[in-house]
UniProtKB/TrEMBL annotation:
Protein name, as recorded: YchJ family protein (SEC-C domain)
Ranges for domain YchJ-like middle NTF2-like: 33-134
The organism of origin for this protein: Arcobacter defluvii
Domain of life, source organism: Bacteria
Length: 138
């Protein structure tokens, strides 16, 4: 999907992408909370920004690998073949070092609905929030 910086941000903020998550994606600023990171990661998947996904993934994440080219290719394959319809935040448990965000991602691949609900865990490492892991919920 072609995406413009003047389109509404995929995170659901109702701001233009260039005034919202793009600031995080371009490392002009960093998310102040795990919730902001969660939303910016959803947007990064939606705009096919594998570099940001890799940068914001904690080294203890099961998908983390030093094989960056292969990992980036996998992310781009997923992003380019998925419609990121909607992000709904269901719960946010905020703390200084470890936080949790429960969300519903509405996603379509081809004609198949692959939407899911996940409770994600984030850790703050040297002042920057990172995605550690998540559990799918029914």
């Amino acid at each position: 999907m072609k995406f413009s910086v003047n389109d509404f941000c995929p995170c659901g903020s109702l701001k233009k992408y260039k005034k919202c998550c793009k600031l995080f994606h371009d490392k002009i600023t960093f998310p102040k909370t795990a919730l902001e990171l969660m939303k910016s990661r959803f947007s990064a998947f939606a705009v096919s920004n594998s570099d940001y996904i890799i940068f914001t993934t904690h080294e203890n994440n099961p998908d983390f690998t030093i094989e960056i080219k292969s990992w980036s290719k996998d992310i781009l394959n997923f992003s380019n073949n998925t419609e990121f319809k909607k992000l709904e935040i269901l719960e946010f448990i905020d703390d200084e070092i470890e936080s949790f965000v429960t969300f519903k991602a509405t996603l379509i691949q081809g004609k198949e609905d692959i939407s899911f609900i996940e409770k994600s865990r984030f850790l703050k490492v040297e002042g920057i929030w990172k995605y550690v892991d998540g559990n799918f919920l029914n």
